[in-house]
Design goal:
mainly alpha, two-stranded antiparallel sheet, globular
């Protein structure tokens, strides 16, 4: 699964630490998601979308 978390996080003016704290995860989790090394759970994906004010589909896309 591909994502635009890093681009959208930066556009929102959030640091990795800030995003992690607001989502209740570690900074390492945010780094792994941004580097496509970890696919978040549905719950976490929805929290990320809510934090960024977007739909999950605007952030995450399936690989073809």
């Amino acid at each position: 699964m591909k994502n635009r978390v890093k681009q959208l996080r930066k556009a929102a003016g959030l640091r990795q630490e800030d995003m992690a704290a607001q989502l209740g995860v570690s900074r390492q989790t945010i780094i792994a998601i941004e580097n496509d090394k970890y696919d978040p759970s549905l719950e976490l994906a929805m929290k990320i979308a809510r934090l960024l004010g977007l739909h999950v589909e605007d952030i995450f896309t399936l690989d073809n």
